[in-house]
């Protein structure tokens, strides 16, 4: 008599993969933006190392940024 193999589906949820160190420092946006803008304006290469990093922002700031992106400035 042949043996039957039962196949069970695996877990649907993907395991979280930690890609870097956990963020632990809080910085005011007003302190951060001028530094990032200066690095971007002067094309500092080290800034590219962080372009895939995620940042956590408040929901109201996200709403304002999303609305700002959707607007077209008039000249």
Helix/strand order: HH
The total strand number stands at 0
- Low-pLDDT segments: none
Rg measurement, Å: 22 Å
Helix content: 25-40%
Mean pLDDT: 82
Largest sheet: none
What distance separates the N and C termini?
82 Å
Approximate shape: elongated
Task: Describe this structure as you would to a colleague.
This protein is an all-alpha fold. It is 33% helix and 0% strand. It contains 2 helices and no strands. The longest helix is centred in the middle third of the chain and has 13 residues, at 29-41.
How would you summarize what this structure contains?
The protein is mostly helical and 75 residues long. Helix content is 33%, strand content 0%.
Would you spell out the secondary-structure blueprint of this structure?
Elements: H1 29-41, H2 59-70
Features:
single chain; 75 residues; mainly alpha
